[in-house]
Amino acid sequence: MFKTIEDFVGNTPLVKLKRIPGNTTNTLLAKLEGNNPAGSVKDRPALSMIMRAQQRGDIKPGDTLIEATSGNTGIALAMAAAMMGYRMILVMPENQSVERRQAMSAFGAEIILTPKEGSMEEARDIAGKMRDEGRGIILDQFANPDNPLAHYVGTAPEIWRDTNGTITHFVSSMGTTGTIMGCARFFTEKKPAIQIIGVQPEEGSQIPGIRKWPENYLPKIYDSNRINRILLVSQQEAEAMTRRLAREEGIFAGVSSGGALAAALKVSAEVENAVIVFIVCDRGDRYLSTGLFD
Fold it and tell me: Does 266 qualify as catalytic in the annotation?
């Protein structure tokens, strides 16, 4: 029986860092989500949201889907829509990297750019207006429980399996918060002592994939009670650590992954004999035009 592309979403590698952690009793493990077919952790919720909505009868092939996105979710939704026969309209700030826009277009999505000054908040408002005008259906990654569910049934069980249940700390950048919410739910059910650490940007830092939302735009799927601690990282820290990941570990990743590693190292400096897992959200080829690796 031959497999199709959706069969290869998930079951991504979990690899041990060899050089960056330095002399420590801790083990730092990177979950390489860039190995998903469309290149990011967002493949999981994108497929989950479309497939489960279709199973419920909320959508059917041929429908138009609309989503506000800063990049990775849009690429993943464009792939899933192409695979399952939907028209995809993506609304995103104009300052996202050209590679992201080109990837979305390659999958056949229509892209609507919004002013960079309005950031993701304006993109979300415009997507909502388009839905209200009857131009399509919003799956809404920020409020859709099928987003964290993808990580509850996939990402977290894979980490639990691959660490043989020895994980002590889970570190994840926070955007829609789907990854950290779904994983936190699974891990705390398995072992309540596991520390769940979220990563947000310092004031003034612009880190693709990591956000601190204004109160009225806070994702509805977010539950602060599931997180033990939030660590702030600067744009400079995230970018420097992203370059180190490539040059010292051979892991070519995006800048949110560097932010997650920076936070994981802060945790590692405080503990001993820990197993610290962090999420490598996507691949670095999505950021070449930004000058990140120059």
Answer: no
